[in-house]
Design goal:
242 residues; mainly alpha; 10 helices; 2% strand
Length: 242
């Protein structure tokens, strides 16, 4: 993890502060712009916390999968050490991106609370459960996409497109309750939507009318992690060191 921080940010100027500073700029910028151009309330809920509770999980996921692309090749020299495995590489990158996104989310949230644009969470337990579910989903998709990007150039080039196309299915800027009932199953099939619904349920309490199934979320993330672990532990023969 320290090696990853040093190679990405170095020690000059702000150095490691960009680890949180970069996500803060994204999250704060989007929250400010959306709060300025959108009504103060949508569907009875304040716009600023809707944006923050949606964009932070989205940023976490997009950064995790973005850093998973060709992660093994970029760190392939480390694999000459028997103690280092491909799983260590993905785990360290995921932890860093998760810590950066959560740190940025906390700073932006505190700022929004201080200026009166957001209230403290109504249910911390549900909010933390949603964050843990989103972390598990980020880890699972990183485990799957990292080995796929080593095996296929198409996957490598398509990651950026996938991250943009999937935004409507991320739950970042909408809630399941706002969708007509016969279309809700499409959003609820996404583990990310389930996580964001829990986070917003924790933030707003009963006002949010959040829709989620903890059993489904736990099962689908567990299955995805198992698939990702199987692929990651078999990826060595496809790694090209750069």
């Amino acid at each position: 993890m320290m090696r990853e921080l040093h190679t990405r940010f170095g020690r000059d100027n702000l150095g490691y502060l960009w680890f949180i500073g970069e996500p803060v700029l994204f999250c704060a910028g989007v929250a400010i712009v959306w709060s300025a151009i959108r009504p103060a309330h949508e569907h009875g809920l304040p716009t600023t916390p809707i944006v923050i509770t949606g964009y932070v999980p989205l940023t976490m996921w997009r950064h995790c999968i973005g850093r998973s692309v060709l992660a093994f090749g970029a760190n392939g020299s480390l694999l000459f050490h028997r103690q280092v495995t491909p799983l260590d590489i993905i785990l360290s990158r995921t932890i860093l991106e998760v810590m950066g996104a959560i740190g940025a989310g906390l700073l932006v949230t505190f700022g929004a609370i201080l200026v009166g644009r957001m209230d403290p969470p109504a249910d911390f337990g549900l909010l933390y459960t949603g964050l843990l579910a989103q972390i598990a989903f980020c880890f699972a998709t990183s485990l799957i996409l990292a080995p796929l990007s080593e095996r296929s150039e198409i996957v490598e080039k398509a990651i950026g497109l996938i991250s943009y196309v999937s935004i409507p299915l991320s739950g970042a800027f909408t809630m399941v309750d706002w969708i007509p009932p016969h279309y809700r199953w499409i959003l609820l099939a996404s583990p990310s939507v389930e996580s964001v619904e829990m986070i917003r349920g924790g933030q707003f309490g009963p006002l949010a009318h959040a829709h989620y199934d903890m059993t489904y979320t736990l099962c689908i993330n567990f299955i995805l992690i198992l698939i990702g672990l199987s692929m990651t532990l078999r990826v060595r023969k496809y790694i090209t060191i750069v």
